[in-house]
Design brief:
By secondary structure, the protein is an all-alpha fold. The chain contains 13 helices and no strands. The protein has helices at about 5-55, 75-115, 120-135, 135-150, 155-185, 185-200, 205-215, 220-245, 245-255, 260-290, 290-295, 300-310, 315-350. The longest helix has about 55 residues, at about 5-55. The radius of gyration is 30 Å and the shape is globular.
Length: about 350
């Protein structure tokens, strides 16, 4: 004879199987409904296509595409062009002042780096990479810099490095306050998000044109275009790093009577520093990726070498300049990653 437990187990099994049947039926029904809706949608698209073709091309001429009834692109383009001309006419002195300052700083930076003997600069970068990333990265950095010099691209590399230094410093100066403001104000964060998305996805050639109109050819449009393209990751990760600080830590700091500025500079920023450093790393890499593009507006350096090789159809010089860019990118990436990792270890503690 079956025990009470066996009978209850059998009854529960039967009830479970009975309960499972409606679930299977409902899933099957949902799948059938989905297929029917997809078929109806496809049929509707076919009908709309046929009606449009007959209404637009009844004679079967076979024109490609279908014109929109209204073209708003022309008035939008005209409005933007008129606005740029108005800014140049009324604020030309301001743009000339900005151009003068950036050009002077860029030329001064290039002159200083070119004045330093190459053994000194190589040893300095090797020492920094050794202290931050270890002897392997230090050896790679020194070997790469020596290879760049032996390939005849030392001066171009220094000019490129000067442009990257100025662009990254400007990006950090812009990104840190905007990231902090976005972390502390949700409305500001919501407003900045679409702007940052546009800055990251808009092709750089689009804002190179007004940059040339405002500042002419040279270092200034190159620096400004680089900053626009490279600054969003630093803003985003500064915002994210401050938001990720533990609420318990923030409450504990407030319970000790810290002011808002003390909370920011002594608690939130130090704890968010690894994430901020990761943002600076991404900004530096994006700035370096703009080297070739900015050469189109007169920026000197390795990008100009690549552009000249392209015009002369010289694949050898193009490969040498491109290899130099890659080596510099790897050196900067490893050093900045090591700095971010060291900050993370300092925050986490032993």
């Amino acid at each position: 004879m079956a025990t009470i437990d066996e009978i209850s187990h059998q009854s529960s099994t039967v009830s479970d199987s009975e309960d499972a049947k409606p679930a299977k039926r409902s899933t099957l029904g949902a799948g059938v409904n989905g297929v029917l809706w997809a078929a109806l949608a496809l049929l509707g698209l076919v009908l709309v296509t046929v009606l449009c073709l007959f209404a637009w091309d009844p004679d079967g001429v076979g024109r490609k595409g279908m014109e929109f009834p209204v073209n708003v692109g022309r008035p939008i383009a005209t409005t933007i062009t008129d606005a740029v001309k108005w800014l140049i006419g009324h604020w030309g002195g301001v743009f000339d002042g900005v151009d003068y300052v950036i050009t002077i700083v860029a030329v001064w930076t290039e002159d200083v780096l070119l004045w330093v003997p190459w053994p000194t600069l190589v040893l300095f970068i090797g020492f920094v990479s050794w202290r931050l990333a270890g002897w392997r990265i230090s050896l790679f950095s020194v070997s790469s810099l020596l290879l760049i010099g032996l390939m005849g691209r030392w001066e171009s590399s220094v000019e490129t490095l000067a442009l990257i230094i100025i662009s990254v410093i400007l990006s950090i100066v812009i990104a840190l306050p905007l990231g902090v403001l976005g972390a502390r104000n949700n409305r500001v964060d919501a407003t900045m998000r679409p702007l940052l998305d546009g800055m990251q996805t808009l092709p750089p050639f689009v804002y190179l044109v007004p940059g040339i109109l405002f500042f002419g050819l040279g270092h200034t449009p190159a620096v400004i275009a680089t900053v626009i393209y490279a600054v969003p990751p630093a803003i985003r990760l500064t915002n994210l790093g401050i938001r990720q600080v533990s609420p318990e830590t923030v409450e504990a700091a407030r319970s000790f009577g810290t002011t808002s500025s003390q909370l920011l500079f002594k608690v939130q920023v130090p704890m968010a520093l690894p994430t901020i450093m990761a943002g600076i790393n991404q900004t530096t890499m994006l700035a370096l990726s703009m080297v070739v593009i900015t050469s189109l507006v007169g920026a000197s350096g390795l990008g100009e070498d690549v552009l000249r090789a392209l015009g002369q159809q010289n694949p050898g010089n193009s490969a040498i300049a491109g290899t130099s860019i890659v080596l510099i990118a790897i050196i900067i990436d490893r050093i900045t990653q090591a700095a971010a990792r060291n900050q993370q270890n300092a925050v986490d503690g032993p």
